[in-house]
Amino acid sequence: MTQTIDTNTGTIKLWKREDITDEIVCRAMREAHKRCGDVFHVLLEKCPGCPQKVIECAIARTIDHGLADFKSNIRYAWLTTKGKAYIDGSL
Length: 91
Prior knowledge:
Layout: E1 2-5, E2 12-15, H1 22-34, H2 39-46, H3 52-64, E3 68-69, E4 78-79, H4 81-88
Antiparallel strand pairs: 1-2, 3-4
Helix pairs in contact: 1-2, 2-3
């Protein structure tokens, strides 16, 4: 867990990998490939204040579940057939 302070409310937010579900990561991958290709930056937009390590762990978990794959950098991961079926509701 990593904590950040919400600048709007002044409260402390404890971030865990579980806060970013496989569905959120898969949808971010789909959006990233329509825009810039960088899943990490799309997830930063969707989860403001979330630490880099938590986002990277969430992407790695989605890859471990077989929903995504990558070559050299997980920031540029893409959906597998299983990942596409998962967010389309066919899995």
